[in-house]
């Protein structure tokens, strides 16, 4: 299951760019909109600049 640490998230939007099927922006922070086991989730985890996605 993927989750986002809201305290860490800086709202850069990279995870949404990389994996818009799973992440979306809400009030300047990323949230998980759908739990999906797809390859771009790992890409988002690897790309997040503050390591906020688990
Ligand atoms: S990539 Fe990381 S810091 Fe950027 S919006 Fe997504 S969770 Fe937040």
Can you tell me the CATH class? Alpha Beta
Q: How many structural domains can be distinguished in the coordinates?
A: 1
Discrete helix count: 2
Which class do the helix and strand fractions yield? Answer: alpha+beta
Taking the alpha carbons of the first and last residues, their distance comes to 8 Å
Helix percent reads 25-40%
SSE ordering? HEEH
Bound molecules: iron/sulfur cluster
Rg, rounded, reads 9 Å
CATH architecture: 2-Layer Sandwich
Query: What is the average of the pLDDT values?
Result: 98
How many β strands by DSSP? 2
The strand line-up of the biggest sheet is 1-2
Low-confidence stretches: none
Per the CATH scheme, the topology name is: Alpha-Beta Plaits
Strand content of the residues, in percent?
5-15%
Biggest pleated-sheet summary = 2 strands, antiparallel
In one word, what is the shape? globular
Task: Report what the structure shows.
With 54 residues, the chain is of the alpha+beta class. It has one domain: 2-Layer Sandwich (Alpha-Beta Plaits). Helices cover 26% and strands 15% of the residues. The protein contains two helices and two strands. It has helices spanning 14-18, 39-47, and strands at residues 23-26, 29-32. A two-stranded antiparallel ribbon has the order 1-2. A hairpin with a 2-residue loop joins β1 (23-26) and β2. The model has no long low-confidence stretch (mean pLDDT 98). Iron/sulfur cluster is lined by residues 4, 9-15, 30, 48-50, 52-53.
Please outline what is shown here.
The chain has two helices and two strands, in the order αββα. It has 54 residues and is α+β, with helices and mostly antiparallel strands. The chain is globular and about 25 Å long.
